[in-house]
Amino acid sequence: MEETISLKELLHTLKKRMFLILSITCTAVLLSTVFSLFFLTPIYQSSTQLLVNQAKSDQPVFNPSEIQTNLQLINTYNVIIKSPAILDLVRQELDLDLTADQLDSKITVASEKESQVIAITVQDPDPYTAADIANTTAKVFQNEIVNIMNVDNVSVLAKASVKENVSPVKPNTILNAVIAFIVGITVSIGLAFLLEYLDNTIKNEQDVEQSLEAPLLGVISVIEDSGRDSRAKRTESIKNTGGESVV
């Protein structure tokens, strides 16, 4: 016999296991919030911007080809900024107790499409350290690019600074709570249906038919026992009728 599940049965399962679903979901959200607030280290972010200028030239007329050349060089600059040749000098200048790879993991270099602006973004538990690393990286790159590529077309557009009441970018407590809510409710609903599937007890007439694979002929209703008082009254009635029971 093919077994089908109706929407009504699904809703009944959810209603039956509602306490389990709410408990798991609320616990997941609570644990995520507590973990984000008290156990994860806050990470601050600071950025500086570099401008890839038109290469210095004796030509007084605006030359679009030079701008296009600078745009093509930006990808090369992005790689050079995170190279050991630059990061080792940054570590030495700031006296950082970090390897080049560890420093590299803190720095993100990106450029806007069709733009001559390069953004150097640094993330660190200390907002002032993040700003120092960003500014020093930009300064070192600006100085060293002259020797590395024999060009002098990079200038600092905006320096990194620490604002008052700066907020960390990580962890995002609200986002983590939302993710925990989605995961919690998904897991709890799946667990509810799994428990219902594993529950092989017979609860209604349909379960009898599915278990025996036979049609149902009849149902015996539940007869409530009214207790000793009812039996005593029935005995007294028989006595009053001379011992004849009345049906």
Automatic annotation (TrEMBL):
| Domain of life according to the entry | Bacteria
Q: Where in the cell is it found?
A: Cell membrane
Q: Which UniProt keywords apply?
A: Cell membrane, Membrane, Transmembrane, Transmembrane helix
Indicate the segments forming the Polysaccharide chain length determinant N-terminal domain, all copies: 3-94
Q: Name one Pfam family in it.
A: Wzz
Q: How does it sit in the membrane?
A: Multi-pass membrane protein
Q: Where does it primarily localize?
A: membrane
InterPro entries registered for this protein in UniProt? Bact_polysacc_biosynth/exp (IPR050445), LPS_length_determ_N (IPR003856)
Q: Where are the transmembrane segments?
A: 20-44, 174-195
UniProt entry tagged with the keyword Transcription regulation: no
UniProt similarity note:
Belongs to the CpsC/CapA family.
Q: What is this protein called?
A: Capsular biosynthesis protein
Q: Species lineage, top-down? A: Bacteria, Bacillati, Bacillota, Bacilli, Bacillales
